[in-house]
Write a structure and sequence with these properties.
By secondary structure, the protein is α/β, with parallel strands linked by helices. The chain has twelve helices and 14 strands. The mean pLDDT is about 95. Bound molecules: adenosine-5'-diphosphate (ADP) and magnesium ion. The site of magnesium ion has 3 residues, from helix 1. This is ATP-binding cassette domain-containing protein.
Length: about 325
C-alpha cells in the first residue's frame, strides 16, 4: 500500500545541511498498522511527511496505492493527497471553527455538495464518539476530544491511508489508550492502512502489527512487533524494550542468588498453554521446579509470556526438559 524506495531527505538551512533520513526502504501492507519508533531527532516526522510529500524527498520514490507520488505534478498530487489522511501531535485544529466546521474543512476543499457534507460530518462525529459536541470550539474540548476531531477530519474524504505523527504524545496514559483503541477499531472496521510514528513502545505494542526502528535517519531493525519485542537485535530496539514497563522486574543477578538448582528461562508466544507443558516436561524427569518470575501479557491480540524457573534435578534432567519444551514450540534456555 505504501512503498518507499531509497528515500533520503537532506535539509539545507544556510550553510548547514542535515541528512534527516537516508536510504529508507520499506513496505507497508494494505490493512496493517505499521509503526516507526525512534528517539527525538531520529527522522520520524521527516519520514512520515515524505509519505504524503508534505516534505519532498531529496532522492528516492514514494508509491502509495499504485501511484508514484514523486512523479506527479502539483495538481495531480493534490488529488492523490486526498487519499492520505494525517493527524498530528498537537491536533492542528482551526481554533476559530467549531468541531463540525473543522471536520467539514477537507470536504469543502473537495467541493462536496452541502447536503452530502452535512450527512458525512454527522457520520464522522458518530464514528469518533463526539455526539453532542459538534457546535463546540476546540478550546472547549479535552485533548482526547481534540484528537478525535483530528481523526474525523483526516477521515472525511475516505482515505485509504492514515498517517499519525505522535498522535498520542500530548495525551495522558488513559486518553492515549482510548485514542489507540479508536484507531484500532477504525483500522478493523474500515480496513484502513495506518502508518504511525512514536517514541513510545507502549503505542507499538498496543496496536501495531509490524514495526521499524529508526536511528540516525536509518532503519536499523524491522519486523513483526512480537519478534522485535522478544528478540530486539539493535541497541536502540533493546533500549525501547527495556524501557517498556513489563521488561522490568527483579534483575537476573538477584534471581540468581535465590536459586537452588538451575535457572531456566522459558518464553512463548501465541496460544501455547505453557504451564501444563512445563509441568508435564518436568514430571517426566522426576525433577522439581519453582517459579521465580513470570509475566503473561498480550501484544495487540497475541498472548506472550516469559517465566524464569528454578529447576532442581540433574544436568541430564534439565537438558531433557529443555529438549521437551523445544519440541512443544517453546523457547527455553538455561541461564548461566
Ligand atoms: N524543516 C527542517 N529544516 C532543517 N532541519 C530539519 C527540519 N526538520 C527536521 N530537521 C532536522 O532533521 C532531523 C530529523 O528531524 P525529525 O524528522 O523532526 O525527527 P523526529 O521526528 O524523529 O524527532 C533533526 O536533526 C532535525 O533537526
Ligand atoms: Mg517528530
Amino acid at each position: 500500500m505504501i512503498e518507499l524506495k531509497s528515500v533520503s531527505k537532506t535539509y539545507r538551512v544556510g550553510s548547514i545541511t542535515t541528512e534527516a533520513i537516508r536510504g529508507i526502504d520499506l513496505h507497508v501492507r494494505k490493512g496493517e498498522i505499521f509503526g516507526v519508533i525512534g528517539h527525538s531527532g531520529a527522522g520520524k516526522s521527516t519520514l512520515l511527511r515524505c509519505v504524503n510529500l508534505l516534505e519532498r524527498p531529496t532522492t528516492g520514490s514514494v508509491i502509495v496505492g499504485d501511484t508514484d507520488l514523486t512523479r506527479l505534478s502539483g495538481r495531480q498530487l493534490q488529488q492523490h493527497r486526498r487519499r492520505i489522511g494525517i493527524i498530528f501531535q498537537h491536533f492542528n485544529l482551526l481554533s476559530t471553527a467549531t468541531v463540525r466546521d473543522n471536520i467539514a474543512f477537507p470536504l469543502k476543499l473537495a467541493k462536496t455538495p452541502r447536503a452530502e457534507m452535512k450527512a458525512r460530518v454527522d457520520e464522522l462525529i458518530g464514528l469518533v464518539g463526539l455526539e453532542g459536541h459538534g457546535d463546540k470550539y476546540p478550546s472547549q474540548l479535552s485533548g482526547g476530544q481534540k484528537q478525535r476531531v483530528g481523526i474525523a477530519r483526516a477521515l472525511a474524504n475516505r482515505p485509504e491511508v492514515l498517517l499519525c505523527d505522535e498522535a498520542t504524545s500530548a495525551l495522558d496514559p488513559q486518553t492515549t489508550d482510548s485514542i489507540l483503541s479508536l484507531l484500532l477499531g477504525i483500522n478493523e472496521k474500515l480496513g484502513l492502512t495506518i502508518m504511525l510514528i512514536t517514541h513510545e513502545m507502549h503505542v507499538i505494542r498496543t496496536i501495531c502489527d509490524r514495526v521499524a526502528v529508526i536511528d540516525g535517519g536509518e532503519i536499523v531493525e524491522m519486523g513483526d512487533v512480537i519478534d522485535v519485542f522478544l528478540h530486539p537485535r539493535s541497541n536502540v530496539a533493546k533500549e525501547f524494550v527495556a524501557q517498556s514497563s513489563e521488561a522490568s522486574g527483579e534483575s537476573l543477578s538477584s534471581l540468581d542468588s535465590m536459586r537452588k538448582g538451575k535457572l531456566l528461562r522459558i518464553r512463548f508466544k501465541g496460544e501455547s498453554t505453557f504451564e501444563p507443558v512445563l509441568f508435564e516436561a518436568v514430571k517426566e524427569t522426576g525433577a522439581s521446579f519453582s517459579i521465580l518470575q513470570g509475566t503473561v501479557s498480550r501484544m495487540k491480540h497475541i498472548p506472550y509470556g516469559q517465566l524464569i524457573v528454578d529447576v532442581r534435578g540433574s544436568g541430564e534432567d534439565v537438558e531433557r526438559i529443555v529438549r521437551r519444551l523445544h519440541e512443544e514450540g517453546l523457547e527455553a534456555e538455561v541461564l548461566a
